[in-house]
Every structure is written in structure tokens, then in C-alpha cells.
Design goal:
With about 220 residues, the chain is α/β, with parallel strands linked by helices. It contains eight helices and eight strands. A six-stranded mixed β-sheet has the order 2-1-3-4-5-6. It has a two-stranded antiparallel sheet with strand order 7-8.
């Protein structure tokens, strides 16, 4: 019997989202988790009665957990289907995309590979920063959650999948790190492009040059400089 939702998210969502879900189904128990250790500590008997919702989290749910869930797992990914994986906003801006989005999909053992069940698209404003684009994606992701909360809280059957496919290239932490490794012969415009997108020291990584065994880290100039 479906009676539990496991909410894998940050603290802000754990404070607000249970109220939305319980508004649709007061009989639910919402269990907030934030790490792999929290997931591993869940009782197997609870998992068989539960559905998992992951919202904009870097935590990867182990395949053993996914297999035990009785009512599926759904991920709210802060990027469009064309940008599965790590830091989608960074790579979309680097590739000078004009459109971005947010995606809801069924979770499978492979990250950002399951059937897509809902998508929001929006134009990318000119000159927007990475943080600005991530904020817009988050807002659309929250709208998707609000729209789907009723069915996720009450329907035992999973939402119907859309005829959409993920992009062929999946971005990862190593892909991000590679963009921060600056070759000595890099053209000026390419260097500027990487500094603009990857120069914020996000995830503890910044553009670097290695010269004679010494690492030089780039610092993004102040706005307007």
C-alpha cells in the first residue's frame, strides 16, 4: 500500500514541499533525506510502500534503493533533456544556447536516462549569469513540482512518459574539470569564454594553467572591469 514519499532535496524544499504533498494526500508520511547515508538507513519495509522524489540534488540514488521502491522514483532535473548530468546551466551558456529548461523523469540506475514525463522550456535572456540561469531553471522546476504534486501524492501508477529523448552527451564533474584546464596556447576569445562561464570557482573548481609544475588559478575580473 502506497503511504510514504521519500523527499530527497535541500533544506528549503524539505521545509515547504511536504505541505504541498500533504495538501493532496493527508494520509501520506513524508520522509526527508539529504544524503546517500540517509538513503542507506531507510527501512526496506518502508521502501516497498514508498515513492521517492528527488529535487535538484547531486545525490545519486543507489540502484539497490531504486529496486526496492514499491512506487517508483522521480527526479526533478534543473536542465532540459538536451543537457543531462552535471552543471547543465554552465554548459548551456558555454555553448551559447538560446533556450534552456527543466525536466522531470523516471529515475533509473543510469543517471538522467529514464523516461521523461514533463518538461518546461524558456528562452535564455542575453547576458545572463550562470546563477541567473540556474535561478530561472529552479523557478520552472518548482512550477513543475507544483503541477505534478497531486498525481505524485495520490496516484499509485507512474505518470505517462513523453516521446522525448535525452541528449547524447552527458556532462559530468570530470567534463567540468576538463573545461577548467587551460592549455597554454588557448585563443584569447576561448579563454574569455571559459572565464565567463567557469570562472566563479563553483564546485571548488576554477580555470587553471599548469606551468613548470606550478598551478595558476584564474580570477574572474570584477563586473565592468
Amino acid at each position: 500500500m502506497f503511504d510514504t514519499i521519500i523527499l530527497l532535496s535541500g533544506a528549503a524544499e524539505q521545509f515547504t514541499f511536504p505541505h504541498v504533498l500533504l495538501g493532496h494526500n493527508p494520509c501520506l508520511t513524508v520522509v526527508p533525506v539529504g544524503s546517500t547515508a540517509d538513503l542507506d538507513a531507510l527501512n526496506p519495509d518502508l521502501l516497498c510502500r514508498a515513492r521517492l522524489i528527488a529535487f535538484s540534488t547531486p545525490v545519486i540514488v543507489p540502484a539497490t534503493i531504486l529496486a526496492r521502491l514499491g512506487y517508483g522514483a522521480f527526479n526533478f532535473h534543473p536542465g532540459p533533456p538536451g543537457y543531462p548530468g552535471w552543471a547543465p546551466a554552465h554548459f548551456a551558456l558555454y555553448h551559447r544556447e538560446t533556450e534552456f529548461g527543466a525536466t522531470v523523469h523516471v529515475m533509473t540506475e543510469r543517471v538522467d536516462a529514464g523516461p521523461i514525463i514533463d518538461v518546461a522550456h524558456f528562452p535564455i535572456p542575453p547576458e545572463i549569469s550562470v546563477f541567473g540561469l540556474e535561478g530561472m531553471a529552479y523557478a520552472h522546476l518548482a512550477q513543475l513540482f507544483w503541477r505534478m504534486a497531486g498525481s505524485l501524492a495520490t496516484d499509485t501508477e507512474p505518470p505517462q512518459a513523453l516521446p522525448l529523448k535525452w541528449g547524447s552527451k552527458k556532462y559530468s564533474r570530470s567534463t567540468y574539470r576538463a573545461m577548467c584546464e587551460i592549455p597554454l596556447d588557448i585563443p584569447r576569445d576561448e579563454l574569455q569564454r571559459r572565464i565567463e562561464v567557469f570562472g566563479g570557482n563553483h564546485f571548488g573548481m576554477a580555470p587553471t594553467i599548469n606551468l613548470h609544475g606550478i598551478e595558476f588559478r584564474a580570477v574572474k575580473p570584477p563586473s565592468g572591469a
